[in-house]
Amino acid sequence: MKLLYAPTSPYVRKVMACAHLCGVDDRIQWLDSAANPVRRDARIAEHNPLAKVPTLILADGRALYDSRVICEYLASLAGNDHLFPADGDARWQALTLQALGDGMLDAALLARYERTARPAEWQWPAWREAQLVKVAAGLEAIEAMAGSLARRSPTIGEVTIGCALGYLDFRFPELDWRREHPRAARWNEAFQALPAMQATIPHEA
After folding, report:
1. Would you say 138 and 104 are in contact if contact means Cβ atoms under 8 Å apart?
2. Residue 38: domain span
3. Are residues 58 and 107 in the same domain?
4. pLDDT tens digits, residue range 93-152?
5. Is the separation of the CB atoms in 186 and 143 below 8 Å?
């Protein structure tokens, strides 16, 4: 398998964390790309019409995207039935937590792009702040449920939330989210110590 990636992408981190948890990380070859919200990279677009990472290229040339699909594929490939519980309340809870983490990441990325990808004369501060309100609401939700989040043997929900909190540390240190969310901070400290998370810490290219 080949993965079109960007080393700073939290969605790529999510995929690789799942790959480590499933024991298939050594079966994935990383392919360099220049993912950008404005400039399309032809290397990605050849396999994914949205030209976004992560995109997973299978041995037969088929491509899978986005992170939600790739993570579930990897779990299925490895026979891991814990990341994505098969049915019942556990499944819906895991998928809802994944949606929360993905939603926080979507909002955080839009807030970042407003300053880094949009020309200064076109930036809309109120739009950026509205995205950060979503992030703050997500943090409040995580704080309220922190005691029930798994620290070991996580589902896709905890993996996604861990990647979201890691992205805030990486790109938004000024938010100082731990100060008002001590329970979430304690959970995150334990979760980020997992080998799968330590192996996938984002970094600048």
Report:
1. yes
2. 2-78
3. no
4. 999 999 999 999 999 999 999 999 999 999 999 999 999 999 999 999 999 999 999 998
5. no
